[in-house]
Design brief:
This protein is α+β, with helices and mostly antiparallel strands and about 200 residues long. The protein has a single domain, classed as Beta Polymerase, domain 2, CATH 3.30.460.10. Helices cover about 50% and strands about 20% of the residues. The protein has six helices and five strands. A five-stranded mixed β-sheet has the order 1-2-5-4-3. It starts with a helix and ends in a 7-residue tail after the last helix.
Length: about 200
């Protein structure tokens, strides 16, 4: 795919991603004002590189072109929302669902139903309206909602196992660490709940 073709392809996706990132940060701020709490630790955004798009199309045995990418890929634009606790993820999800100008195209709950590897996250693909002189069109943006512990696990798994054959012993270790991190997170949430009982008016951030 020529660079110019790639640049033209990703331009509206970049706009959709930026709009959604601003919206999510705004919801986090509104939540803070209403509940004196921040559910989101940070928000990360990225546009898939030309090389990554080409590799994904080749892997799927699809034509390597901007048209093919637009028709077949929903993760050209991606946002990762890192929350503190699982409850925070579902709080933000409920707020996202109230945004009537966004289309929910796909959802995958890997928190309730983790992958066999131990991977946990909540994936959502949203259609975000982008306006051009030709009119309005929805562009997909994939959001991954994770807690800090889920993000740590995924980052380490990617660093250690990426592009390699994972030995059974290593895979079992990551399954174990996934549950250990989840338990640590539950313990931390319990500590927070106890502090809030003793100091109900204290902001958490």
């Amino acid at each position: 795919m020529p660079q110019e073709e790639y640049d033209q392809l990703v331009e509206p996706y970049r706009e959709a991603m930026t709009r959604l990132e601003v919206r999510i940060n705004g919801l986090n701020e509104d939540y803070r004002k209403k509940y004196r709490d921040y559910p989101i630790h940070n928000v990360q955004a990225r546009i898939k590189s030309r090389k990554s798009i080409e590799k994904k199309l080749i892997h799927r045995e699809l034509p390597v072109s901007a048209i093919s990418a637009k028709e077949n890929l929903t993760d050209i634009a991606g946002i990762r929302v890192i929350c503190y606790f699982i409850e925070d993820i579902y709080s933000i999800l409920s707020l996202v669902r109230t945004q009537t100008d966004l289309l929910i195209l796909k959802e995958s709950d890997y928190i309730t139903n983790p992958k066999a590897s131990g991977y946990k996250s909540y994936h959502m693909v949203l259609g975000v309206p982008v306006y051009r002189i030709e009119g309005m069109q929805y562009y997909p943006v994939e959001i991954q909602f994770r807690t800090l512990s889920m993000d740590l696990w995924a980052s380490m798994e990617h660093r250690i196992c990426y592009k390699g054959e994972t030995p059974e012993e290593t895979a079992e270790a990551f399954q174990y660490y996934s549950e250990e991190l989840s338990q640590m997170e539950r313990n931390m949430k319990h500590l927070l709940d106890e502090i809030r009982k003793d100091n109900p008016q204290e902001p958490t951030q």
